Amino acid sequence: RFETNPLRDSERPRTERRTLIKQTVEETVTENKQAVSRDIKLRCLQRGLVVSRESICRKLRESGRKWRLNKSIIKKKFTRTIKPEQKTQLRKICQVVASLHRQPGSTVMWEDEMKFPVSQVAKKLWGLQNEPGVERTADTEPCITAVVICDKDGFKAIQFFERELTSEDYQFFLMSCLHRFRTEGVQKLKIIQDNAPWHSQKEGPAKQLLSRLVQPSIPGWPMLNFIENTFSPVRLKYRSSIKGTGLTERSRNIFSIFK
User: Fold this and answer.
1) Rounded to whole angstroms, how far apart are CA atoms 221 and 192?
2) What is the CA radius of gyration of the chain?
3) N or C, where is the chain less crowded by C-beta within 10 Å?
4) 142 vs 163: CA distance, rounded Å
5) For 169-186, what is the mean pLDDT?
6) Angle, helices 247-258/227-239, rounded to nearest 10 degrees
7) What are residue 125's phi and psi, to 5 degrees?
8) How far apart are the C-alpha atoms of 96 and 79, rounded to whole Å?
């Protein structure tokens, strides 16, 4: 249910408008510790208040909050450096990506998995100096695992599983994608993936084909997988979306986020 005010934003006195915006900002952050400026702006619009995200951030800073690391999950900043023995593999990945982008009919894709409901909490949030962070909550809904492939232009394939992913599931997914991509005119393809246990291929004819198709990334470096950048807005939209009740409805709503 939306909270509305019959007065137009331009009809309100300036003092009243500032008070309402300040009150809305404080209420939103108090109710949801992970709220960002976009969520607060939506709440303001529901109350008939037109305000920029820049102004919202200014109000948050005036209240003593800063865009801080979530103390509950982040103990120290990421300072990992690449090892000398990993430089050869990194160079190979860069060469593969660069060469395929120059060849007509060739492409590079990235693959990864997401689990729903999203149990991750935000790495950063608007918090006070001595305010505790937000802890992860236990999952109460059945897990849906989404296997996703994307290229530089967007998502290309997605499949949902009602259980933990296995090597057989992953192998079947890749073979189905390979057949579809070939019919769409992709002549040469490389899929960059991480080193998850279910990515190990089972023995058989499919392994020989897929071993030439996939390129493992460097262990412990998820930022080298381009798809990780696309998952962040998906998680953000999922947290603020309608989840649905049944498994079919939930899957349909999740799929609509990827479209």
Assistant:
1) 12
2) 23
3) N
4) 9
5) 88
6) 130
7) -155, 165
8) 27
Residue that is written with structure tokens 């400026």 in the block? 37
**Tens digits of residue pLDDT in 54-64:** 999 999 999 99
Angle between helices 53-62 and 37-46 (to 10 degrees): 110
Beta bridge partners of 145: 115, 161
pLDDT in tens, 144-168: 889 999 988 889 999 998 878 888 8
Q: Is the pTM of this model over 0.70?
A: no
Q: Within 10 A of 161 (CB to CB), how many other CB atoms are there?
A: 17
pLDDT at 3 over 70: no
Residue 159: beta bridge partners? 147
- Distance between CA atoms of residues 232 and 243, nearest Å: 17
In three-state secondary structure terms, 64 is coil
The candidate with the shortest Cα–Cα distance to 211, out of 166, 257, 178, 246, is 178
Across-strand partners of 215? 192
C-alpha span between 26 and 20 (Å, rounded): 10
